[in-house]
């Protein structure tokens, strides 16, 4: 009797009619998915989907009559689960934000020649052997040589990023001793990089001088003790202290070395190698300026104004760089062949200032004249009028930002294509653009989607047009 009831309830429980994993694996539609996504990933998606279905059925006591979903419905859900997991994989996106060095979007767009060089690296390479002798050779040889040639530095070194460069410098040269820094330069860069924490972790003792808005040479001078190993200057990243403010330049700080020896370090952050004024942009201190002003070491990122791969670069005195290279941390912070090659190819572009703005996407985007962007915007507007006539599209003047802690106080005039839909909010449009393939990332301004023409690469306005047309069709 008890057994009979059990069987009856089993039959009426739709959970028992949910197909098994084995049955689903034989389904031709699932076999097709395996061909595209691989068996392990499809298996995961099937298990996830079946678990979800069983718990839905268990909780929906009233809807029991609806029964278990059909095989076709389950396959559709498995495919949706696969697409959902794949949506966050690393892949190309269209940057319509107007932020040229967008950390969330991979910062600098690599120059074509760097990408081509990476593609050519399908076999082995002489990462660390001397081709002449066959013995152990130097890593990063050509990148370092080019950095020295371009900056006039005695020596150079490449590590994983500029945060690592700062940490290496402090750990190797300041551990157990004092580093003097202005209160106006105790920066946080984002991604939890806070300079005071970095100094603390390195084992150095931080000696703060001055106030948030003003630091004088005499403040630094008064802080020097026999235990001072370093004065660290930090380029204000992504902020400016404006108004009643004062900071001390590298040259003045270098003059204190006549009083007692210490290492003067300039953390430049964005690492301009050329005078940006030549490209119609506001002045940004160059690496050469810092070295000429007497910095012993200068560090900066490879993927900010250089426009190359993520890397941290240290240049300066030969003896100090040699010492850094021997420090155990430098083994942990070294870069691989992909970074070295992409950096070398990017640096080569700086040898020819004539072609730099054409070949280096970062410099090209930053210096693109507003009227060329307006033309691009009008072309997109015209194409949208045909392809998506129910969108309200307007071309308006706006401002782009360099991002990445470069030129923080200098918005760059640009042209935006602003889009509104009668039946979707700006948030919804933005979300659908991000979910398009390739994803398009835009910002919202005045309840409209604002597409900045400055950060679109050649031809990408067509992708944006196609994405919008597909969304509203
Ligand atoms: C960006 C920046 C850093 C961090 O550089 P990463 O390459 O992102 O690690 C450090 N210091 C300054 C001044 C910066 O602008």
Can you walk me through this structure?
The protein starts with a helix and ends with a helix. It contains 20 helices and 16 strands. It has helices spanning 2-12, 21-26, 28-37, 39-59, 71-86, 112-119, 141-151, 162-174, 195-202, 217-223, 250-255, 287-292, 318-326, 328-332, 337-349, 353-359, 361-367, 370-387, 426-435, 460-472, and strands at residues 94-95, 99-101, 155-159, 178-182, 188-190, 193-194, 205-209, 228-234, 263-269, 297-301, 312-316, 392-403, 412-420, 440-441, 443-445, 448-452. It has 3 domains: 2-86, no CATH class; 94-104 and 365-472, Aspartate Aminotransferase, domain 1 (Alpha-Beta Complex), CATH 3.90.1150.110; 112-356, Type I PLP-dependent aspartate aminotransferase-like (Major domain) (Aspartate Aminotransferase, domain 2), CATH 3.40.640.10. The mean pLDDT is 92. The structure holds pyridoxal-5'-phosphate. Residues 161-163, 166, 189, 193, 234-235, 237, 267, 269-270, 301, 312, 405 line the site of pyridoxal-5'-phosphate.
CATH-defined superfamily of the largest domain? Type I PLP-dependent aspartate aminotransferase-like (Major domain)
| Largest sheet entry | 7 strands, mixed
Q: What is the molecular shape?
A: globular
CATH class of the largest domain: Alpha Beta
In whole angstroms, the N-to-C terminal distance is: 60 Å
Q: Which ranges are low-confidence, i.e. pLDDT below 50, for 5 or more consecutive residues?
A: none
- Radius of gyration, in Å, reads 29 Å
Class of secondary structure makeup? alpha/beta
If classified by CATH, what would the architecture of the largest domain be?
A: 3-Layer(aba) Sandwich
* CATH structural fold name of the largest domain: Aspartate Aminotransferase, domain 2
Q: Strands across the major sheet, in which order?
A: 3-11-10-9-8-4-7
Number of domains: 3
Overall average residue pLDDT: 92
What is the number of strand segments?
Answer: 16
């Amino acid at each position: 009797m008890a057994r009979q009831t059990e069987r009856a309830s089993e039959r009426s429980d739709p959970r028992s009619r949910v197909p098994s994993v084995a049955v689903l694996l034989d389904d031709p539609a699932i076999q097709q998915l395996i061909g595209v996504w691989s068996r392990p990933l499809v298996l995961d998606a099937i298990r996830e989907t079946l678990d979800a279905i069983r718990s839905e059925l268990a909780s929906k006591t009233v809807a029991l009559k609806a029964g278990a979903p059909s095989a076709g419905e389950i396959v559709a859900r498995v495919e949706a689960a696969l697409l959902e997991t794949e949506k966050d994989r690393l892949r190309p996106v269209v940057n319509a934000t107007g932020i040229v060095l967008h950390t969330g979007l991979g910062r600098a767009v690599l120059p074509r020649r760097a990408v081509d060089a990476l593609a050519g690296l399908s076999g082995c390479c002489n990462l660390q052997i001397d081709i002449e002798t066959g013995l152990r050779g130097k890593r990063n040889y050509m990148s370092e040589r080019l950095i020295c040639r371009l900056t006039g530095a005695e020596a150079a070194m490449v590590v994983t990023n500029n945060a690592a460069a700062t940490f290496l410098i402090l750990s190797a040269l300041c551990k157990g001793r004092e580093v003097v820094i202005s209160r106006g330069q105790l920066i946080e860069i984002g991604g939890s990089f806070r300079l005071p924490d970095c100094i603390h972790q390195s084992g150095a003792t931080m000696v703060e001088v001055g106030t948030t808005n003003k630091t004088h040479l005499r403040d630094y001078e008064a802080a020097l003790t026999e235990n001072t190993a370093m004065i660290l200057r930090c380029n204000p990243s992504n902020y400016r202290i404006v108004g009643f403010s004062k900071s001390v330049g590298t040259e003045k700080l270098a003059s204190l070395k006549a009083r007692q020896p210490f290492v003067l370090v300039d953390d430049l952050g964005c690492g301009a190698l050329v005078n940006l004024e030549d490209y119609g942009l506001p002045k940004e201190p160059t690496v050469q300026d810092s070295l000429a002003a007497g910095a012993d070491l200068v560090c900066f990122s490879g993927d900010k104004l250089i426009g190359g791969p993520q890397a941290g670069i240290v240049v300066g005195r030969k003896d100090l760089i040699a010492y850094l290279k021997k420090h155990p941390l430098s083994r942990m912070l070294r870069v691989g062949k992909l970074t070295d090659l992409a950096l070398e190819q990017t640096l080569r572009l700086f040898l020819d200032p004539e072609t730099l703005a054409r070949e280096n996407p970062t410099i090209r985007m930053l210096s693109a004249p507003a009227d060329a962007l307006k033309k691009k915007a009008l072309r997109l507007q015209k194409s949208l009028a045909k392809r998506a006539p129910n969108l309200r599209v307007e071309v308006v003047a706006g401002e782009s930002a360099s991002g990445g802690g470069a030129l923080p106080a200098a918005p760059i005039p640009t042209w935006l294509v602003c889009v509104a839909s009668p039946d979707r909010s700006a948030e919804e449009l933005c979300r659908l653009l991000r979910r398009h393939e390739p994803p398009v990332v835009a910002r919202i301004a005045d309840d409209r989607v604002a597409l900045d023409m400055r950060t679109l690469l050649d031809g990408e306005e067509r992708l944006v047009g196609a994405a919008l047309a597909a969304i509203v069709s």
